[in-house]
Amino acid sequence: MKTKAGNELTKNLVERLADDAERGYDLSTAKRVRVRPGRPSLAEGESPRISCRVPASLFEAASAKAKAEGRTLSELAREALQRYLTS
User: Fold this and answer.
1) For residue 81, which of 55, 50, 56 has the smallest C-alpha distance?
2) Which of 9, 37, 64, 78 is deepest in the core (most CB within 10 A)?
3) Tens-place pLDDT, residues 5-46
4) Using CA of residue 55, residue 56, residue 61, residue 62, what is the dihedral sign?
5) Distance (Å, rounded) from C-alpha 35 to C-alpha 28?
6) Torsions phi, psi of 73, nearest 5?
7) DSSP secondary structure string for all residues of 21-62
8) pTM of structure
């Protein structure tokens, strides 16, 4: 198993973390981290979502193109919309 950071979760690491937890933590030195639900914004502030329906053939073609380019369908759609608006 691996940690969220990608480090291997060995028996020694688990024991060390358990020992640390049993000793307790000084929460007065902890830093507050604000965690927001959902995906991170694409820019400063909020990134509104656009939803639309497309024919199955268009969805399949776009999905195949995105996969062939190693991109997400969202990236492909954003680029297409940007090109349309700047033409």
Assistant:
1) 50
2) 78
3) 888 889 998 999 899 889 988 888 888 877 777 777 777 777
4) positive
5) 19
6) -65, -35
7) HHH---GGGPPP----SSSPPSSSS----------HHHHHHH
8) 0.52
What are residue 2's DSSP bridge partners? Answer: 8
| Contact by Cβ (8 Å): 39, 33 | no
For residue 65, what are the contacts with CB-CB under 8 A and spacing of at least 6?
Answer: 76
Question: Cβ–Cβ contacts within 10 Å for residue 62, how many?
Answer: 15
- Amino acid letter for position 84: Y
Q: Which two tokens stand for residue 63?
A: 């999905």
CB distance 8 to 2 below 8 Å: yes
